[in-house]
Amino acid sequence: MKQHLTHLIEEALDSLVKQGLLSSSLASIQIEATKDHQHGDFACNIALMLAKSVKQKPQDFAAKIVAAMPASPYVEKIAIAGPGFINFFLSTQSVGEVVKRIHAERNQFGRCAIGRKKRVLVEFVSSNPTGPLHVGHGRHAAFGNIVCHLLDAIGFDVASEYYVNDAGRQIDILTVSVWLRYLNALGESVPFPANAYRGEYVVTIAETIKKEHNASFAVSSQSIFTDLPKDENEGGDKELYIDAVIERAKQLLGAKYQLLLDRGLASILADIENDLTEFGVTFDRWFSEREFIATGVVDALLQKLMLSGHTYELEGATWFRSTNFGDEKDRVLVRSNGVRTYFANDIAYHLSKFERGFDLAVDIFGADHHGYVERMRGAITASGIDSERLIYLLTQFVSLYRSGKPVSMSTRAGDFVTLRELRQEVGNDAARFFYVMRKVNQHIDFDLDLAKSQSNDNPIYYVQYAYARICSVLKQLEARGLQYNEENGLANLHCLEEIHERQLLNLLARYPETIVEAAVHYEPQILTQYLRDVAACFHAYYNAHSFLVEVVSVRDARLALVLALRQVLQNGFEILGIHARESM
RNA sequence: GCGCCCGUAGCUCAGUCGGAUAGAGCAUCGGCCUUCUAAGCCGAGGGUCAGAGGUUCGAAUCCUCUCGGGCGCGCCA
Fold first, then answer.
1. A265: left (phi over 0), alpha (psi -120 to 50) or beta
2. How many other C-beta atoms lie within 10 A of the C-beta of residue A164?
3. d(CA A530, CA A317)
4. Strand B closer than 7 Å to the CB of A50?
5. Which nucleotide's C1' is closest to A442 (Cα)?
């Protein structure tokens, strides 16, 4: 419809050019849906934009445009209002057309092909496998998953990946944490390092290992702790101390150290994957940093960067001159001890994404990584790849509120809330909806009481209830022994003349552009907001009018409308990954 | 100190490409159930869009500065 109206304006402008009233019709014509129904269904601001160049009052020029416009079967009335807007009032018949379209396209309604099958890789969560996911990761999971669905809906070829950071020092810390808890479970009395992972899950893993392997990882407490530096609580450095414990563990366990490491890692990854799967979030690939390094392609990929002339040697280390790309200081790629940094491996990983044929790489990270973005983009540019192809989306933090008070989530105190606990408390649907209801770069105050409440205050119940109510109407139809005739409904759309019906029809027509808007900006909250609007419109309609009226033509037309709405709700829910419930 | 993000009603937040009188919900107050679910609807009050300049037909939206809040500034990951 927008296209049609744009075309009408174009013809009017062309005609004015021919009359010599306008020098050029080259203007970007903006047609927008009105906010207020008194302004008709669509409005155009073209007269306001061109008024200056033709040296006329916008209202006068608008009148000339309207006079030059060809007649259209869809347009019932055209009015000039306000400072010079041209308002289009459509016929009931043409507004109702959207219902036919929805009935024809079903679950395809709202999908389009503007992504042109371009390949996009979305990387998200990528949480270090050192413990269970917490509520912050949940936001990444929900957001990333929904961004994938949105991009798919507009015709991108989407793949998702979880980068498993299983090669670094923190895995060693996990391993000794598990080991010390294991020794504890065997009855050894061992001090627990200040910098080790203190969570209860470590104890659980240790106990499992004890059951599986008995005492095969046992050593005497004395052999571990002789001649170690002081830990933090003894006035020492916790970093130096934990590194010394790691070294000692490797010495004492030999080849068995790797066994222990693998066991702990596998256990945590399994937990993470299980948690995400239950949450409805799956990945096309779990990309292991360790395996990636083992293939040997990391050095080959980094060669691109090395050959760019943007790297140099200093004090035994290899540096990337990221200051050439706006970074505040240069960054180390290879440490003086010969070990590559996380950054170097990550550059190789990102280069591999483009090497593997992806046109676009979308990374979803926490806002605490923002300092990292610039140097990665620099490295990509230096390697000869257009950094426009790398998109970073940074999420802000999530705070939980219960009874109006913030829930303490200090990791140190061991009382941080896991994603699993949150899901169990409020349910997957509410968690997903609440996570993406806010702009990604805005802090979330997650109200647990609200997410659980079964009331109109709760947005997730509000939208699901709209769906359930429509289902309920259909059950009622059956209970009264009535039949719905779709063909008759679609033939009588001109009966939908109530103001609520007009508003609902216009909203339904906006669903496809809402999806495009949400997808291209990576903003799912545009969709959640739309669903809340459409639900509010429906509830008002429901309250104002009966659907199951005596007059068959009106009844069938109304049912055709609410069934179209049900389809749109279902399509939106599908993208959000929430359930369409038939009853509440 | 430097960099990034944020600041909209008492509270939590919408506000599309710069458009018409800045909108919802909660809370407060007042209505609506012989009815397809009242888990809902309708109405009232409530605003210096943090502040000051600028850009223009028009600014919550774009630019500059100031104030306030969050985050980041490792040969960690």
1. alpha
2. 22
3. 53
4. no
5. B6
| Predicted model pTM | 0.94
Residues 343-362 of A with CB under 7 A from strand B: 343
Residue A171: is its pLDDT beyond 90? yes
Domains defined for chain A, CATH in brackets: 2-90 (3.30.1360.70), 124-281+396-449 (3.40.50.620), 455-576 (1.10.730.10)
> Would you state the structure tokens that stand for residue A30, as one six-digit string?
């903006």
Is the CB atom of residue A331 positioned under 7 angstroms from any atom of strand B?
Answer: yes
What is the value of ipTM here, to two decimals?
A: 0.92
The whole-angstrom separation of Cα A143 and Cα A522 is 9
- A45 sits within 7 Å of strand B by its CB: yes
Kindly state the helix (H) or strand (E) to which residue A75 belongs, with its residue range.
Answer: strand A75-81
A336 beta carbon < 7 A from strand B? yes
> Which residue, A42, A152, A92, is CA-closest to A505?
A92
Q: Which of residues 282-321 of A touch strand B (CB under 7 A)?
A: 314-317
Is the CB of A396 less than 7 A from some atom of nucleic acid strand B? yes
State residue A45's pLDDT score: 86
Inter-residue contact A407 to A448 (CB < 8 Å): yes
pLDDT digits (tens, 9 = 90+) for A81-132: 888 889 999 888 888 899 999 999 999 999 999 999 999 999 999 999 999 9
End-to-end CA distance of chain A: 36
